[in-house]
Specification:
six-stranded mixed β-sheet; 1434 residues; disordered N terminus
Length: 1434
């Protein structure tokens, strides 16, 4: 009573939360997704808030040098602090074992001693910072490029020059762009100080304006990029006095086209030379630039233009104009301005519910136009039917599921750089409904209209609300076979139809409808399967499609409306493709024309148009082809070469520019040449058509000339080649005969090459055009190579090692080849590794060390036998798991023959393979090895725990749940804890063990109108996981209701609880009037039933008492050791006792149940489970047998009152590895007087293995009426303690009760009478078919009080008068359970009764046992004997 009063007080304080729990998980599909400003609120619902998670600092592009140290900054903010990792070129870095790279406390990456070689560049690449917060998500930073300055090499070096005082001087020093910051200049080997008059251009070139005498001297440039400095050649600058005569204007340095990013500085070099000294001015797009008043435009020394903080408006064509009063020259250059990606609109945080559709918006700008990709929790989002990129950059997610929750990032990237912006998506639990009736399922859901792209659904109101004026509806639909479900809501209350748009033709969809009222969502209708129609009503082709070029990079396409539109045309899609490629692009157009920009110059494209109406895309038009307009070539001619013919002429050869850069038909070439000593005097020659050579004549003897060539189109002249020099001969040499033999020939053999060097012929008066080198193995005529006449050495490559080659050298001219010179050489033997691929590692093995660690070992056949690594080879280990199927490989490098892979998932199968790399050579991947990590205790509790009442049984509840999301192994069992006090210590809660393959359980005999709290704990082979949160449930007040404020629909007798209890039906509570009437009816029926039962019981008791006396007499006659009185003396039935005096209990190894997942739990059930004296238990026995086959049955029920004694401290082995215990009985022959040991053995059910210990067996001569049975059953149910061990009952030897399973002790006794009592029976393992049945042979108990083992509690199962009999001995049975040792169980062995007691019982039965009745009993016992004989034989 105190417990009930406490429960009522608890109900008063927690009724509100009970309603919330009952309706938890209800959908609220009508709600729209909420942005970050206002999360949807509902009474009693704790809405999760967005977690601030962003980067404080992101890495930036960095330039470094060899041997230096670099820091890539990265810092992220979140509570709790995030875990920072780094990726290089898309692969995670293993910083634990890296001695050069380390992670700083703030998350930055510190690289010491940067490594950079020609063939080994481990540090250069793209780096990305990855921040992760456990159970929250992952974000990635922008990608930063680490560039390591290459080895210093000079593309051009300073040359000696002379300059008049007051003019400008230019000294070239061109190096790689990444080395420019490391260039400095020296004058007379002293550092040169730069100022406004002496500047260094971004290319490294030195410009000195207004030269004075002190500027003369030796100049050289120095590159210091780590390691020893690299010096250029020294060049002397001579300063000449002013000659006071005029000279032509020439450009010492002309501007070249530039590409700059917004915010950077641009320098357009322009230096002119002439007398008088020229002045420089600049123009942009025909407008003069004011460099004096502008803050961003500065005129540098010599006339170069510097533009600081470049903007998009600075793009254009710049003209440098040099003027000295006598002459004006100009040069032009194009400045292109690019912009890094920048967000115009960043994604915002979103609240949403499952099944909803959301859109993350992301607008970016940049030049060139950025490309956008989306990342979720650090992984790329691959577009699909449910993840779509809409409006160029926005991400649309259709039919949200719980796993879609996390951080989404929009990453924009172009040639200049990249940027990222992210947002968080939270999937909210549906708001709990208020207390009140919920609608039932909508009726008659049909597809009233089915088209190719849409389906119209209609339905009737639910049966619970026939009017339905205030109901709204949600239609959930999905493609057949797809887990994602989308939702469409009705537009206003009472509307009972909806049209689902944007479906696919000829596709099967599944629909269901739910109704909502003010209290929440009701039941769902049955799924409706509908297939859309094939596509038919589509637009025809758009007529009159035309395309024409509007510029070298743009084409305009026009068309008209299709004649057969089949409805309104919504938009058009224009497809275009470059000729010769297979990559088609498209653009959406709403009008009848569109201009496509950004095309390639003078390139042919094909176009087609497809019209769209509400049904989808129509028929495509025919392709139309058009070529963009031509433009000036964008590249110079190729392979320019010079051939000196004589002292007056030079022949020029070249090849056209690459086809992709010609930008039109090449109409000719422009050749410009000049003397090397006078760069101002330039001569031009035009070559028309496709001519690729030209002879330049009329040149001076012994003079060096510079030549360059540019290609022409109808649009103008393209860029020219670099200047190429050649020197005419001093005199006209003789070319009427072939050259003489070269004066010398030397060879130097290497492994696969031979270096050949020579000197020219001694006779210098004969023209030599070049040299011909012939070589081959044993003969010089296999290969021939020709080189220029200036060349003096050549390397013959790709030769065989250890081979004898013959080499010949001949000089040639236009007349022919001269006399050859021979030499031979043997290449060196092979001393370097063969470039063939290496052998892959073998014997790859995976050794599992723990739940997250596997050691990979392997052998390398290319190593010596001792497997010792002495070279620089390394191994790459990769691994992955096939769940999910699209998992990517992870890699790690190792320098030993083993590697420890950590951070793996528990109970997961991984595959591993290894490859070896040495220098440039790598092997293929080895054979794969597989390993499954060990199991780990579950790290999450069972989920979706729900509690509902069972219909018709208000004191019985059904608990449903789902397995833990992180089971980390095979779940072998669950434990349900329940209590009426949520704050009680956990060892005070009642426990219910359940096997691991079940997700539902019934608990009965609970107290009405009482709140209970339930927790569930999962277990695998490694142990118990965490408990779930407590779930509250209040039992109904009366037997007719299914819970507070709820009702259960009529689901039928075979109804099984759903696997997920999130959608339990609810209804209205019963009114007070109906409850009172129901109570009156129940009480009336109960009183009448009790009166009838009492009358029947009295009648049956009298008949049973008489009948049992007859049976006692028969039993006594069987003994054969007493004398009978009266009529019974003449009737001596044969001795039918079976000689099974000793029964031993031994465990056997084989489990009687083939299901290995069933578990043994030595926890006793309540008294109802073990009391075999109630006739009503027969049905329970059959139900339990059904449960052995895996069906839901009453064996999953228990009572709270019957388990007060159970605690979690009891042994509950759930592991399924050891065999289940089976108790076997061994009948053993005895030579002493016939007395019978009573044994009770039981077989645990698969669902719950209870060991039933013997209690007080019935005496043989004691009769038991129906009323006695009823009384004894009631007494057991009222027993408060269940710590006592329940006893199995035995049947009397002579009872006529037939057990339905044919395995009772009576049949065992009868069938054994045919056996030879003088022989020892063989030991047999007899498996009882049910825990409540025993095949032990009961004996006639002696008088006297019972004796019990004090270590075993006993339960007074039956109230009987003959209970106090002396038990003369106790024997034990060893029971093996899951390999654990347990204390022996005492087995009660009753003695035979005394003669006086037996004689008294026979005297009581003399008058009631007639001969004909005894004959019938004998016949009956013979039948039982045959049954038992058949069983024992089988």
């Amino acid at each position: 009573m105190a417990a009930e009063r406490g429960a009522r007080r608890l109900l008063g304080t927690s009724s509100f939360w009970l309603c919330c729990l009952l309706l938890l998980g209800r959908r609220a599909p009508g709600a729209a997704a909420a942005r970050s400003g206002s999360p949807p609120q509902s009474p009693g619902s704790g809405v999760r808030t967005f977690t601030p998670f962003y980067f404080l600092v992101e890495p930036v592009d960095t330039l470094s040098s060899r041997g230096s140290s670099v820091i890539l900054n990265c810092s992220a903010y979140s509570e709790p602090s995030p875990k920072i990792e780094w990726k290089k070129d898309g692969t995670f870095l293993n910083l634990v074992s890296d001695d050069r790279r380390q992670l700083l406390p703030d998350g930055s990456l510190f690289i010491t001693n940067v490594v950079h070689a020609k063939h080994n560049k481990p540090d250069e690449g793209y780096y990305q910072c990855v921040a992760t917060v456990e159970n929250l998500g992952t974000i990635v930073s922008r990608t930063a490029k680490l560039t390591v300055a290459s080895l210093p090499r000079f593309a051009s070096q300073p040359e000696p020059s002379s300059v008049y005082a007051g003019n400008s001087a230019v000294l070239n020093c061109e190096v790689n762009a990444d080395l420019v910051p490391f260039v400095r200049w020296e004058q007379n080997r002293q550092p040169l100080l730069l100022d406004d008059r002496v500047i260094k251009l971004p290319s490294g070139t030195l410009v000195i304006s207004n030269v004075t005498e002190r500027d003369g001297g030796l100049y050289r440039c120095v590159v210091e990029s780590g390691g020893p400095p690299k010096y250029s050649d020294e060049a002397e600058l001579k300063v000449l006095p002013d000659p006071e005569v005029t000279s032509n204007l020439v450009f010492l340095k002309q501007p070249s086209s530039l590409v700059r990013v917004i915010g950077q500085s641009a320098v357009l070099p322009c230096v002119a030379l002439g007398l008088p000294t020229p002045t420089i001015r600049w123009m942009k797009n025909e407008e003069a630039l004011d460099t004096e008043s502008s803050e961003r435009l500065v005129l540098l020394a010599g006339g170069s233009l510097e533009i600081s903080d470049v903007t998009e408006d600075d793009a254009g064509t710049y003209f440098c104009i040099a003027d000295n009063g006598n002459e004006t020259i100009e040069a032009q250059a194009e400045l292109t301005v690019q912009a890094q990606p920048e967000f115009l609109k960043q994604p915002t945080n979103i609240y949403a519910h499952e099944s909803m559709d959301i859109i993350f918006e992301c607008e970016v700008t940049g030049k060139p136009a950025p490309t956008v990709k989306w990342v979720k929790n650090g992984d790329m989002v691959i577009p699909s039917d449910y993840f779509k990129i809409v409006k160029e950059h926005n991400l649309q997610v259709l039919g949200l599921v719980k796993s879609d929750e996390g951080f989404y990032q929009c990453i924009a990237e172009n040639d200049v750089g990249n940027a990222q912006a992210g947002a968080q998506l939270i999937i909210l639990e549906h708001a709990p409904a208020t207390t009140g009736p919920l609608p039932s399922a909508p009726r008659d859901v049909v597809a009233s209209l089915v088209s190719t792209r849409f389906i119209k659904l209609t339905w009737r109101t639910p049966a619970s609300d026939p009017h339905g004026d205030n109901l709204t509806y949600s239609v959930f639909y999905t493609k057949e076979g797809i887990a994602r479900e989308r939702v469409e809501n009705t537009s206003h209350p009472g509307e009972m139809q909806v049209t689902i748009q944007n479906l696919m033709p000829a596709t099967v969809y599944i629909f269901r409808v739910m109704a909502q009222n003010k209290h929440g969502s009701g039941e769902s209708s049955a799924p409706l399967r509908v297939e859309t129609q094939p596509e038919v009503q589509l637009p025809g082709p758009a007529p009159n499609i035309r395309a024409y070029a509007t510029s070298p990079t743009s084409i305009t396409v026009t068309w008209e409306t299709p004649l057969s539109g089949n409805g309104e045309i919504q938009n058009y899609k224009l497809y275009y493709m470059e000729k010769g490629t297979d990559k088609e692009q498209d653009v959406d157009v709403s009008s009848h024309s569109h201009t496509i920009n950004g095309l390639k110059k003078y390139t042919e494209y094909s176009f087609r148009v497809v019209a769209y109406n509400k049904h989808g895309p129509g028929v495509s038009t025919q392709d139309v082809a058009v070529r963009t307009l031509s433009d000036v070539p964008s590249a110079a001619p190729q392979n320019l070469s010079l051939e000196v013919r004589n002292s007056k002429s030079i022949m020029i050869h070249w090849q056209p520019p690459p086809p992709a850069t010609q930008n039109g038909q090449i109409t000719g070439y422009k050749i410009r040449y000049r003397k090397a000593s006078r760069k101002s005097d330039v001569t031009e020659t035009l070559v028309t058509g496709t001519q690729l050579s030209q002879l330049i004549e009329g040149l001076d003897r012994g003079t060096e000339y510079n030549f360059r060539v540019a290609a022409l189109t109808i649009n103008g002249t393209g860029p020219a080649t670099d200047w190429l020099s050649a020197e005419t001969f001093e005199s006209d040499l003789d070319e009427t005969r072939v050259p003489d033999v070269p004066s010398s020939l030397h060879v130097r053999p290497l492994v696969t090459s031979i270096v050949v060097s020579w000197t020219p012929p001694e006779n210098q008066n004969i023209v030599v055009r070049g040299y011909a080198i012939g070589y081959g193995i044993g003969s010089p005529h296999a290969q021939t190579i020709k080189v220029d006449y200036k060349q003096r050495y050549y390397t013959i490559e790709n030769l065989d090692p250890s081979s004898h080659y013959v080499i010949t050298l001949k000089a040639f001219n236009n007349v022919g080849e001269g006399i050859p010179l021979y030499e031979s050489a043997v290449t060196r033997p092979h001393t370097v590794p063969d470039p063939t691929p290496m052998m892959p590692p073998v014997g790859v093995q995976a050794s599992i060390l723990s739940h997250d660690t596997i050691r990979i070992t392997w052998a390398d056949n290319s190593l010596p036998k001792h497997q010792k690594i002495t070279d620089s080879r390394y191994y790459t280990v990769r691994w992955k798991t096939n769940i999910p199927a699209n998992t990517k490989y992870k890699n790690a490098n190792a320098t030993t023959l083993s590697y420890l892979v950590t951070g793996l998932k528990a109970n997961t199968l991984y595959e591993f393979s290894v490859m070896v790399t040495k220098g440039r050579r790598s092997s293929t991947w080895s054979m794969t090895a597989h390993g499954t990590t060990f199991e780990l205790v579950p790290t999450s509790p069972p989920k979706d725990v729900t509690v509902v009442s069972k219909e018709g049984k208000p004191r019985t509840i059904i608990v449903n749940w789902q397995p833990p999301s992180e089971a980390n192994g095979k779940i072998t069992g669950y434990i349900i804890y329940y209590s009426t006090d949520v704050n009680a210590e956990i060892h005070d809660w009642v426990i219910e063990p359940v096997v691991g393959n079940r997700l539902t359980h019934q608990i009965q005999e609970l107290t009405l109108d009482t709140p209970y709290y339930f927790k569930i704990q999962a277990r695998n082979s490694k142990g118990m996981g965490p408990m779930s949160e407590a779930v509250q449930f209040r039992t109904p007040k009366a037997s007719g209701s299914a819970g507070k404020g709820s009702r259960l629909p009529d689901l039928g007798s075979d109804y099984k609880p759903p696997m997920s209890g999130s959608n339990s039906p609810h209804g209205s509570p019963t009114s007070p009037l109906d409850s009172n009437m129901l109570l009156v009816i129940i009480v009336s029926v109960g009183v009448i039933t009790i009166v009838v039962v009492v009358i029947i019981a009295v009648f049956c008791t009298r008949r049973t008492t008489s009948h049992q006396k007859k049976k006692r007499a028969a039993c006594k006659s069987v003994n054969g050791s007493h004398k009978y009185k009266g009529n019974s003396k003449d009737v001596k039935p044969p001795d039918l006792w079976i000689h099974h005096e000793r029964l031993e209990l031994k465990p056997i190894d084989k489990s009687p149940d083939p299901n290995p997942i069933m578990t043994d739990t030595p926890i006793p059930r309540n008294s109802q489970d073990i009391t075999p004296v109630d006739n009503s238990m027969d049905s329970n026995i059959h139900q339990r047998r059904n449960s052995y086959r895996g069906h839901e049955s009453e064996d999953s029920m228990s009572t709270l009152a019957g388990r007060r004694g159970m605690r979690p401290k009891m042994m509950m082995p759930f592991d399924s590895q050891p065999p289940q215990p089976v108790i076997s009985a061994h009948p053993i022959h005895s030579l002493d007087n016939p007395h019978h040991h009573f044994h009770s053995s039981s077989l645990a059910s698969p669902a719950r293995s209870h060991l039933y210990h013997p209690g007080s067996p019935w005496p043989i001569g004691t009769s038991m009426s129906l009323s006695d049975r009823a009384n004894s059953t009631e007494s057991i149910r009222n027993t408060p303690s269940t710590d006592t061990m329940p006893a199995s009952s035995s049947q009397t030897c002579c009872t006529d009760h037939q057990d339905p399973e044919g395995a009772t002790s009576s049949s065992y006794l009868a069938s054994s009478q045919e056996e030879d009592s003088g022989q020892s029976l063989p030991t047999a393992h007899v498996r009882p078919s049910h825990p409540l049945k025993s095949f032990a042979v009961p004996a006639i108990p002696p008088p006297g009080p019972p004796t019990y083992d004090p270590t075993l509690p006993s339960t007074p199962l039956l109230s009987q008068q003959a209970l106090n009999h002396h038990l003369h001995s106790v024997k034990t049975a060893s029971i093996g359970t899951l390999g654990r040792s347990r204390p022996p169980m005492p087995v009660v062995v009753p003695s035979a009764p005394d003669v006086q007691e037996t004689t008294r019982m026979l005297e009581d039965s003399e008058s009631s046992y007639e001969p004909d009745e005894l004959t019938k009993e004998m016949a009956h016992l013979e039948g039982l004997m045959k049954d038992l004989n058949a069983i024992t034989t089988a």
